[in-house]
Specification:
328 residues; Pectate Lyase C-like; 22-stranded mixed beta sheet; 5 helices; 20% helix
């Protein structure tokens, strides 16, 4: 299939969507084709990457239906912000919104405004002058907090000063998770935008599908398993592992190793200051550099870049103090 046929069938398939949505889709796809052609790909190769046009149209309808349903059902609360000073937070999918906690352990403050809700849980056992790390040990049996999250909550922000955050089997539009000290785990979730930040702790993402993913930790490892559209992961001190298929990806660590296994369809930037980079990728055009280390790439060298397979995916790999290894 060539570009004109794909775009014609796509235009017919999205004609029943809202006009502005259909227009944005067609504009984005035109840009996608232009980017691919500028990278030297053929129209047929780009169509193959996109897959069956009917499946693509069905996915677009499903996404728009979920977005529209969220707007229609979220008549009172579409944005929720939860802040906890100390305690572990577990988020689950449900048909209603609810926060389960031990009233003997926490005082709740809730403020509703328009379509938003601010919720603060503060430890009753908190000692003045003590930080959340100390207070979290005062009543450990009562510091679990469960959040039941329906799909009609359009945006959810969760913060814990001291404690782990875990979300499982959640479907959502925009979710932000942050912790001053604690690990963050995401399992089998379908999320459009996910932002995760922890000052001290690991970030672990398993399975599921996340379109846009933004991760950062000052000190901790990042482990990602799953597919996405745009992924950014930064660790100042820690290793980064990724396994899956992605359109664009940026992985960066100041001190730590980076392991990548999968496929990059458009662009990748892999960088570490002090550490090794190990990649397993079949198709890519790779520009690699290291100041003090070895480069070993399983591809042929041409015009300053290494070509693997069909060369799809433009990848830059650099390590200031470490080895760069790429194999199929």
């Amino acid at each position: 299939m060539k570009r004109d046929q794909f775009m014609t069938e796509l235009a017919m398939g999205v004609a029943d969507l809202p006009q502005d949505v259909a227009r944005d889709i067609l504009t984005d796809m035109d840009e996608y084709f232009n980017d691919g052609l500028n990278q030297g790909k053929s129209e047929e190769a780009i169509c193959d990457q996109l897959g069956d046009v009917d499946d693509f149209i069905a996915l677009l309808h499903e996404t728009e239906q979920r977005r529209s349903s969220s707007k229609e059902l979220s008549l009172h609360t579409t944005w929720v912000h939860l802040s906890v000073d100390a305690g572990d937070i577990h988020v689950h999918s449900a048909d209603h919104f609810e926060i389960k906690y031990d009233p003997n352990a926490y005082d709740m403050t809730k403020n509703e405004r328009d379509d938003a809700m601010d919720i603060v849980l503060e430890s009753k056992t908190k000692i003045r002058g003590m930080g959340g790390l100390i207070n979290s040990f005062l009543n450990p049996a009562s510091t679990r907090i469960d959040v039941l999250l329906p799909e009609d909550v359009d945006q959810m922000d969760i913060h814990s000063d001291y404690g782990d955050i875990e979300i499982e089997s959640v479907h959502g539009s925009t979710i932000s998770l942050s912790s001053n000290k604690g690990d963050i785990d995401i399992k089998r979730c379908e999320i459009i935008d996910l932002h995760v930040c922890t000052s001290l702790g690991d970030i672990d993402i398993k399975a599921g599908s996340i379109q846009r993913l933004d991760l950062s930790t000052n000190a901790g490892d990042i482990d990602i398993e799953g597919n996405g559209s745009t992924i950014s992961a930064i660790s100042n001190l820690g290793d980064i592992d990724y396994e899956g298929m992605v359109e664009t990806i940026d992985l960066k660590t100041s001190k730590g190793d980076i392991d990548f296994s999968g496929k990059i369809n458009q662009r990748g930037h892999i960088q570490t200051q002090m550490g090794d980079i190990d990649m397993h990728i079949n198709d890519a055009t790779i520009k690699a550099s290291t100041k003090l280390g070895d480069i070993d790439i399983d591809g042929y060298f041409e015009n300053g870049v290494y070509i693997l397979g069909d060369g799809s995916g433009d990848v830059t790999v650099s390590s200031a103090l470490g080895d760069v290894t790429v194999s199929k």
